[in-house]
Amino acid sequence: MSIIWTEQGLDTLERMAPEGSGAQSVDRALTLLSLIGRHCEKGASLAAIVEGSGLNRPTARRLVLALIRSRLVEQDPVTRRYFLGEEAYVLGVLASRRFGFLDCALESLASLSKTSGDTSFASIRRGDYSVCLHREEGAFPIRTHALDPGHRHPLGVGAGAMAMLAALDDAEIARILDTNQAILAEHYPAYTSEAFAQDIAFARSRGYALNPGRVLQNSWAIGMAVRYPDGHIAGALSVAAIDSRMGEARQAELARDLAAEVLKVETRLSGRFGAHPTTNGRPFKTARGDLPPQSHSTAPSTGGVEP
Amino acid sequence: MSIIWTEQGLDTLERMAPEGSGAQSVDRALTLLSLIGRHCEKGASLAAIVEGSGLNRPTARRLVLALIRSRLVEQDPVTRRYFLGEEAYVLGVLASRRFGFLDCALESLASLSKTSGDTSFASIRRGDYSVCLHREEGAFPIRTHALDPGHRHPLGVGAGAMAMLAALDDAEIARILDTNQAILAEHYPAYTSEAFAQDIAFARSRGYALNPGRVLQNSWAIGMAVRYPDGHIAGALSVAAIDSRMGEARQAELARDLAAEVLKVETRLSGRFGAHPTTNGRPFKTARGDLPPQSHSTAPSTGGVEP
DNA sequence: GAAAGATGTCCATAATCTGGACGGAGCAGG
DNA sequence: CCTGCTCCGTCCAGATTATGGACATCTTTC
After folding, report:
1. Domain B22-93 has CATH 1.10.10.10
2. For residue A159, which of A230, A254, A249, A227 has the smallest C-alpha distance?
3. What distance, in Å, lies between the first and last C-alpha atoms of chain B?
4. Domain boundaries, given as residue ranges, for chain A
5. pLDDT-derived band of residue A130, with 50, 70 and 90 as boundaries?
6. Nearest residue of chain B to residue A17 (CA atoms)
7. Would the Cβ of A50 be found within 7 angstroms of any atom in strand C?
8. Do residues A135 and A143 touch, judged by C-beta distance below 8 A?
9. Tens digit of pLDDT for each residue in B279-303?
């Protein structure tokens, strides 16, 4: 009925292990971890994990037990459902010294939702996907719950994700769309190549991305990308509302607010990561989608430090 | 020379796997993850990882590669050092819906450091250890850097950790001290059984824990535990200063401020987790130190929901 | 500029993980 | 109260997987 793809499935496993590079159980376990993260609100049942991972029950359970031993995952003793654990929180806090996008964005989301009355989101790119980190509700009573924290959509699907996609160069866009081809065709019929081309062109000319109800009918949204001081993309902010609240005029208005907040977030990021030009105070780009299992001397692409 | 135990070693591995419960590479990999988390500031070299884990290089590298594949870890292409990756940040954000201690504490840390001029910390309990999540510097020029984010000390070592320890019941305290015995003897000679008994008694009678320079000479601190609405411990706040700024009078003064901020944090936590009495809006206690590899019906101890 | 110190890699051996099959808990209905 | 169903957790022989000593390479040091 809905086009949404919440209980998203066994995509990652297949594509992930580039090729016999050892430690496969670890790969599988971490896939499960990510999967459990997506169900962070209500927890993941073992069945859901099995279903979502393509593994079989015993294997999944053994791996999840390992995650529990490390406290990355907890199991509700009564519901038997699996949740992210305390260690995940701790690691996140420690990692946020290098990836503080959400920290810098929260305030702006609050402001956006307050002035607009609609719901705003922060998303980041993770490989060829976009993950929602936070949803800030607005006061307007009709709210679209198309996107929950933890949910993941292919890059380009949704306003924030489209803003991030449109900010990339054409070659990479092509690669990403190609990689996600199968999933797009299966779960997001509204996102044809033409739709992508159109949305990308729109985003580039207008400066903001628009999702004209492609994921969920009547649920429109606009989004803008946020960049680290060095220019690479930190994430995106977006605001969603029902279509009747997204006419041309209001789009322009929201886009103005959005732009202002994006600037603020970038300023905060800059204050936090831009100050250490020589040291490693900010994330370096990693290899992208694939990851040819290391090549000592063939990583000049971006460098970790200054140009 | 220093008593501090920063580059802490191969303790976890040995004790962790309760006994042949499968998925051992996952255990090892996640131990490495935690280890890398401890070096979050400057990154971990492969040598440090090898040293710290007790594994050998090839194995460590293979496991770290698996972590990199999952984006939980990144490697600086030039330094070759390993850092926590973006996925760790994402998971942390998602987990923080259930463990938002630091979110609720940050503001109070800022306030504490501002009014006192000294450095304040937020720590949480992780098993039989205490992990520092955040350090907020004060204005006073002489600062002790005894505790960095990511650092881990046995429960009871340091003011915050002692506050959490003293809040537990005697049986559990005994178990914890017993578990940590070897590490304490080796790395924290100042923490004798008598010292513990004394500090615990002090904390319980005064309402705040005091570290009279036991970790680092002249570096004193006071700490107080913070609780979730259901009474179980969320973490601790602490303030550290050189001994000359920790006389009885100032202790009392700081303790008063600390108590006020602890109350605020607990109020925030309550607003965030207390509101959902029936649903799973807050973390449930997990099994403690060990974790007898699951026992379906023998987990009535704490229950996940309401009494 | 050569030694020392790290990092990354290979491959035969040995231990580990896999997954079909089984037992049990909780629940709805007759 | 029992039956049927679903979901969860566990076991064990077979097969795939990980292990770590030894080697190659790059970087730093004296």
Report:
1. yes
2. A254
3. 50
4. 21-94, 97-274
5. very high
6. B69
7. no
8. no
9. 344 555 543 333 333 333 333 333 3
The CATH class, in words, for A21-94 is mainly alpha
Secondary structure of residue B192 in the 3-state scheme: coil
Indicate yes or no: CB of A40 within 8 angstroms of CB of B94: yes
Contact assessment for residue A241 and residue A229, using Cβ atoms and an 8 Å cutoff: no
Q: Determine whether the distance from the CB of A24 to the nearest atom of strand D is below 7 Å.
A: yes
Closest chain B residue by Cα to residue A124: B90
Q: B6 CA to D30 C1', in Å? A: 30
A46 CB below 7 A from strand D atoms:
yes
What pLDDT band is residue B1 in, cutting at 50, 70 and 90?
very low
* pLDDT cut 90: percent of chain B above it: 58
- Judging by beta carbons within 10 Å of its beta carbon (0-12, 13-18, 19+), is residue A76 exposed, middle or buried? middle
Phi, psi of A59 (to 5 degrees): -60, -50
Is a pLDDT exceeding 80 seen at residue A275? no
The top-level CATH class assigned to A97-274 is: alpha beta
The Cα-based distances of B185 to A35, B175, B181, B192, B221 in angstroms read 41, 16, 6, 8, 22
Among B18, B4, B12, which Cα is nearest to B36's? B12
Q: Does the distance separating the beta carbons of A294 and B77 come in below 8 Å? A: no
Alpha helices in chain B, H assignment, sequence order: 11-16, 24-38, 46-53, 57-69, 86-95, 101-116, 159-166, 170-187, 193-206, 248-269
Give the angle A164-A204-A96 at the CA atoms, nearest 5°.
Answer: 25
Q: Which two tokens stand for residue B211?
A: 């570290």
**Strand C contacted by B46 CB (< 7 A):** yes
Touching check for B150 and chain A: CB below 8 Å? Answer: yes
Can you tell me the distance from the alpha carbon of A116 to that of B205, in angstroms, rounded to the nearest whole number? Answer: 52
d(CA A139, CA A137): 7
pLDDT category, B146, cuts 50, 70, 90? Answer: confident
